[in-house]
Structure formats: C-alpha cells, structure tokens
C-alpha cells in the first residue's frame, strides 16, 4: 500500500516518486520535519520543510481515505452486494466525493420516502415507469392498490419517490450537478428579517451575492460567522433552471405520461435531494478552503513574529503601561531573571511624573539597564513620550513591543510556575521585557492562537489550526537552535524529537547536575534514547563545550567528517573553525560517502564559517510621529511612519501610534497587482504610509504604502 501512497502523493504534488517514498519512510520511522529537511537531504533529494509538510499532509489524507475504503467495502460485503467490479472501482478510487458517490446506493439510511414506498411493494412500478413505455401509468398503478396503498395516485407518488432517490444517487447525475456548482455556484447572503440593528457590524453582507469561486476566504469566514450568530441566511446555488434542464435531458427519454412522471421525479430529486446534498458538500468544501487559507496566513504571520530580531542578552526594563492603575515596571538581568518590580504613576489621574522618573532613573542605575521595553497597549504612546523626554545617565534604548497574548501568559500555569509569588501584572511586565530580549523564547510559552496575528482564527478548524501553528513554532525553534543550558521547558518542548516530558527531564537533569558540558551528556537524561538523541542533538547548542562543534548546527553523526578534514589540514577542529584560509583549501569531493553527500558537506562548511549563527536579523529602533496621538489628529494625505502588526490575504494592518490600526488594502501596497500581501510586507516591518481615507464613525483608517 505504501508504494501506492508514494505514487499518488508524488503525482498530486508534482514531485519525484523516489523523493516522496524516502520522505514517507523517514516519517514512518518517527523523524520530524525539521530533522528531515536539515539532516537527510541526500535521502529526500533536498526537499525543504514546505514540501515535506505537503507530503505529510497528503500521506495522512490518503491513509484516512484508505481507512474509509475499508469501512465501505466491509459494509457492502455485509449486504452481500460486493461484486468484483465494484471492489475494483472502490480500490482504484482516491477522490473522496467520487468514492462517496459509489457508496451512496449502499449506504445505510434512515427511513426515507423511497424506502417506505419499497416496503409497500412499489419498486416494480418504479422500474416500469423508468422504462417510459407505459402510455397509461395510472392503469398500471391500479394493480398496486392494496394493503397500505389506498389508490393509484398514492402508488404513483410512491414510485416517483423511488425514482427520485435513484436519480439522486446516480454517479453521473451527481457529477453533473457538482460541475454546475463548481462552474456557476453563487454565494448569497441575506439579513435575517428584524436583525438589521443587532447585526449591524455585518451590514456589508446584508444583501450579498458573489460567485463562490471568487469569494475571498476572509469574506466567506465573516459570512459564515454572521450566519452562525444568527444575523444572516446563507445559500449556495448554481443556475437552477439550467441544471434541471440538463438532468431532464439525461433522464427523460419519452414524451408520454410515463416520461412526464419521470420528469417530475427528476425535478423532485434535484430540489429535495440533490441540490441540498451538493450545496452542503460545497459549503463544507469552501469553508475548508477558507480555513486553509486563513491558517496559511496565520502561520506565515506567526513565523515572522517568532523570527523577529532579538535584542539579545542585555539588561532590560519591561513596562506594562496604564493610566489609572499606573505602569507596572520590572527589571530583568541578561538571562531574563526578575530582579525588581514596582509601579510608577506618570499619567493622569494620579499624575506623579517627577516621582515616576526618579524611580525609573534609580532602577536604570541600580540594575544597569540597557534597554526599556514598553507594551503597545493602553497608555503606550504616553509612556514612550514620557521616557523619551527624560535624560538618563547611561545609554538606554527605548522600544515598543507587542503585548498580544501577554495577559494569557501571565495567567498560565507556566507563568505561575515561574513566578508563584507574584501576581499577573508583574508576570505580564516580565513577558513584555523578555519579548524584547528574545521574542521566540518568550512567545513559545503562549498558545499561538492567542498571539493575535491571524484572521478569524476562532472560526477555522481548531485541530488543523493547532497542527499548523505547532509545526510553525517547531520549525522556527529548530531553525534558530536552542542553548540547552538556558532554555526553559516550553522552548525545549518544540525541539525536534523532544516533547514535553523529555523537555522536563532535560531541565531536571540540568538542575540536579549543573550545566551540560557536551552533547554526549544528553544521553544521560532519562528517556533520551538513541532515536530522540538523533532527532534533537543538532538543534541543541552548548556554548562553552570543550568540542566547538557542540555549539553549531553540525550533527554529531557528522563530527567524524569534520575531524577528518581537520586532520587532513594538520590542525584541530577549533583551529579549522577559526581559520578561513584552512577551510578554503578543503576539497569537499574527497569527503563524499554513501551516507554523506555534497548537500550535507556544504551545510557543514556554511556552519563552520559562522558557527552558531542566529538566522534572525538585527533589531531596529522605531519612532511614531510625535504629533499623532488619536484618530482626531489624522488628516487625509498625511504621511506617517508605522509598524506592520498583522497581515491578512486582503491587506496589512499597521500601527501608526494610536489606538486604531490602519489598513493598507492589497491594492494600495504597490503599483502593481498584489496577490499575496506577504510578498510586499512582513510582520514588524517599519513602513511609511499615507492616510487615504478616514471613517470616524466606524473608526476605520485606510492607508497606502509609500515607497
């Protein structure tokens, strides 16, 4: 069966079967996607993470279809109706809708009108009508007036019910209707009468109609949400008349009375059975496609957020700003440990700016603060302005950071375990400060859904969303790598092959035995078997290790290759890493073996050039326009600096320093057509924008990106 899966997956994705087969084998062996893409390039032909994820998804889908086939075959066999031809068709079919069409006539049903008619003995009459030769069907029907059948009309109605079900279960007929929905399906939304005021935020969809294939995922998800909340009635339909005419041409072969009855049965089949069934199918399919697109956007945004540049190991002051309750201030050391916390009240209604600055100045001096991180929520701009007006006795950089999800972290078990003696306000401020130091290490502690860089994340398939976001986090963590001697359980959990229990075991071992001195020592951690070590070792870093390769992305399985290179150059591994001239003399072809190919050797050389290099870029300071503090300060035509804080498939939302974010519609992102806003902007990118529209009533700001 696996050979078949490889062929089918390769055909579906346009990849070589050899690559797919090798990838599936690795996945079945328990290898993770980051490990396969980084350390098994020879086996997969250099497939990247995106391609491997696609193979995994297609493979899982095929396995699910195979399980469904087993159920279908067993059910039909139990009925004694499984012919060799039917088995062959089911075995060869991998298209889910077609498979269900084949199964439909055999699928156990609740008591339908057609089944009730069969029980009354009317199936022979239905067969007679379908032949369409009987000129006087009412006379033929009279022979069936007995028992529960009171008259000829009732007999004919029952026979037509049987015909309608036969038509609705016919594969060719279902394909015809499905094609009509695919080509001409129109999504229609109407406001529920009397709900106009309550559902006002959806008024753009009160009288909405658009071809389904042109309806964007964000629009469809908004419409479905409004439907679920009870504000809209939604339907999908093709050209009904054309569809009925097509079906009548397919089924009606006579102009006599029997033919007319068959025509009526076809119309009934379409309206009562076929159209609702295929509409449900397309509603489900379009929702799944919208979900997939929304999840793709969310995952892309999350990836950019997680890979945001870190400030690094600096002493940081984290501030959760506020008015009435004051600003919650914490001081952190280079490792993110909490040194001190207190409140300041620089803003109304308390208004003690002098006292507030004196406290900040004292904390900066006492704890040798290098940078200040201010959350971007309420009173953020005011707090930033307050601090930038002050003069410190040492150089201090001021940053505004996203605080989305900080409140979720502060109330979480992870936060309670880290700071059991402090309340949520202190924990939230710590999270803000740590986000500046290392966004990735801090954000992995939060459920990705709570970070708020997606669209309609609560409306999509939650299982699919969780899987996609977890894969994104795993990919980012393994791309950057982790210092095994400083990483917490949350971060270690996402390392390839580790997981929650082993992550906790690593932390416990470190606590009991001190810092790890080599990667080999990881094998002493309880439950760290050979397979888990193989999967995780290359992604775990030990900065002060005796073997310098332990602080690189070179996998321990390749240490012998590097050591041989060093011997051939007459030096140590440490000297080889330090001396570029020595590395340039290496002829990689000499080190190619059956298991170590040129892709791995090239990766090794790149790593030796910049051992332990962080793929994230340098952090940059940013300043909002000092004259803009609220929506009232905006005027059309203004040009302003801004920070992209969310990207959707219809545009990018930009923080311009006020409560309301502005939207750059994708048509305003560039002087060309933009299919995907991610082609033009990234999360946290600093941009210049022009205000092109202000809807003060709805508090909406339209922006244009200025090059």
Describe what this molecule looks like in 3D:
- The chain has 707 residues and is α/β, with parallel strands linked by helices.
- It has a five-stranded mixed sheet with strand order 6-5-4-7-8, with helices on both faces. It has a five-stranded mixed beta barrel with strand order 11-12-13-15-14. Strands 2-1-3 form a three-stranded antiparallel sheet.
- 48% of the residues lie in helices and 12% in strands.
- A hairpin with a 2-residue loop joins strand 11 (639-648) and strand 12 (651-655).
- The radius of gyration is 33 Å and the shape is globular.
- The longest helix is centred in the middle third of the chain and has 50 residues, at 257-306.
- The protein contains 29 helices and 15 strands.
What's the arrangement of secondary structure elements?
Layout lengths: L1 H12 L3 H12 L4 H7 L1 H4 L4 H30 L5 H9 L3 H8 L9 H7 L3 H9 L5 H6 L9 H17 L2 H14 L1 E6 L15 E5 L5 H12 L3 E6 L2 H12 L5 H50 L9 E5 L6 E6 L5 E7 L8 H14 L4 E5 L4 H9 L8 E5 L4 H5 L2 H6 L5 H14 L1 H5 L18 H19 L1 E2 L5 H5 L5 H15 L16 H7 L3 E2 L17 H10 L4 H6 L1 H5 L13 H12 L29 E10 L2 E5 L6 E4 L20 E10 L4 E7 L1
Parallel strand pairs: 4-7, 7-8, 9-10, 13-15
Antiparallel strand pairs: 1-2, 1-3, 4-5, 5-6, 11-12, 11-14, 12-13, 14-15
């Amino acid at each position: 069966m696996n050979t078949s899966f490889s062929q089918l997956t390769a055909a579906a994705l346009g990849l070589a079967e050899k690559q797919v087969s090798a990838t599936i084998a690795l996945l079945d062996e328990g290898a993770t996607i980051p490990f396969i893409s980084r350390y098994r390039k020879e086996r997969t032909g250099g497939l990247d993470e995106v391609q491997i994820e696609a193979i995994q998804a297609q493979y899982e889908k095929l396995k699910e279809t195979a399980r469904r086939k087993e159920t279908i075959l067993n059910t039909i066999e139990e009925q004694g109706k499984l012919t060799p031809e039917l088995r062959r068709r089911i075995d060869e079919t991998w298209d889910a809708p077609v498979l269900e069409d084949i199964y439909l006539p055999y699928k156990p049903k609740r008591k339908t009108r057609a089944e009730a008619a069969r029980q009354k003995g009317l199936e022979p009459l239905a067969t007679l009508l379908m032949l369409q030769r009987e000129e006087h069907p009412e006379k033929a029907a009279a022979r069936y007036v007995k028992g529960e059948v009171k008259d000829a009309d009732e007999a004919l109605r029952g026979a037509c019910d049987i015909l309608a079900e036969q038509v609705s279960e016919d594969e060719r007929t279902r394909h015809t209707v499905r094609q009509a929905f695919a080509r001409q399906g129109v999504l229609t939304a109407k406001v529920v009468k009397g709900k106009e005021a309550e559902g006002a935020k959806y008024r753009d969809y009160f009288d909405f109609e658009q071809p389904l294939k042109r309806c964007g995922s964000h629009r469809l998800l908004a419409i479905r949400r409004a439907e679920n909340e009870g504000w809209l009635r939604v339907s999908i339909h093709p050209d009904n008349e054309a569809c009925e005419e097509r079906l009548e041409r397919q089924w009606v072969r006579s102009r006599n009375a029997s033919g007319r009855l068959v025509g009526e049965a076809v119309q009934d089949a379409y309206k009562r059975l076929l159209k609702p069934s295929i509409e449900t199918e397309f509603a489900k399919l379009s929702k799944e496609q919208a979900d997939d697109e929304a999840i793709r956007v969310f995952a892309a945004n999350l990836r950019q957020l997680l890979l945001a540049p870190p400030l690094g190991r600096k002493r940081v002051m984290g501030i959760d700003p506020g008015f009435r309750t004051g600003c919650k201030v914490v001081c952190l050391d280079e490792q993110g440990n909490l040194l001190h916390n207190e409140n300041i009240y620089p803003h109304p209604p308390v208004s003690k700016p002098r006292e507030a600055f004196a406290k900040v100045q004292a904390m900066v001096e006492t704890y040798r603060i290098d940078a200040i991180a201010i959350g971007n929520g309420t009173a953020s701009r005011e707090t930033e302005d307050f601090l930038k007006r002050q003069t410190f006795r040492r150089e201090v950089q001021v940053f505004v950071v996203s605080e989305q999800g900080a409140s979720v972290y502060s109330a979480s078990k992870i936060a309670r375990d880290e700071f059991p003696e402090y309340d949520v306000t202190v924990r939230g401020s710590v999270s803000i400060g740590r986000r500046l130091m290392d966004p990735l290490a801090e954000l992995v502690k939060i459920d990705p859904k709570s970070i708020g860089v997606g669209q309609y994340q609560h409306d999509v398939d939650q299982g699919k969303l969780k899987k996609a976001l977890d894969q994104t986090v795993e990919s980012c963590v393994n791309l950057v790598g982790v210092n095994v001697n400083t990483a917490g359980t949350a971060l270690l959990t996402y390392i390839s092959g580790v997981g929650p229990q082993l992550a906790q075991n690593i932390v416990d071992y470190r606590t009991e035995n001190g810092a790890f001195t080599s990667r080999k020592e990881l094998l002493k951690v309880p439950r760290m078997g050979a397979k888990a070590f193989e999967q995780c070792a290359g992604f775990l870093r030990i900065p002060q290790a005796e073997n310098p390769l332990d602080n690189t992305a070179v996998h321990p399985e390749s240490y012998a290759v590097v050591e041989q290179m060093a011997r051939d150059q007459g030096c140590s591994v440490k000297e080889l890493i330090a001396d570029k001239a020595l590395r340039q003399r290496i002829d990689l072809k000499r080190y190619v073996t059956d298991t170590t190919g040129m892709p791995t050797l090239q990766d090794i050389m790149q790593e030796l050039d910049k051992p332990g290099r962080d793929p994230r870029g340098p952090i940059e300071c940013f300043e909002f326009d000092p004259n803009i503090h609220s929506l009232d300060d905006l005027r059309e035509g203004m040009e302003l600096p801004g920070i992209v804080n969310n990207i959707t498939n219809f545009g990018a939302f930009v923080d311009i320093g006020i409560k309301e974010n502005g939207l750059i519609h994708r048509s305003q992102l560039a002087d060309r057509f933009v299919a995907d806003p991610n082609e033009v902007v990234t999360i946290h990118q600093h941009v210049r924008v022009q205000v092109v529209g202000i809807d003060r009533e709805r508090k909406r700001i339209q922006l244009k990106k200025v090059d």
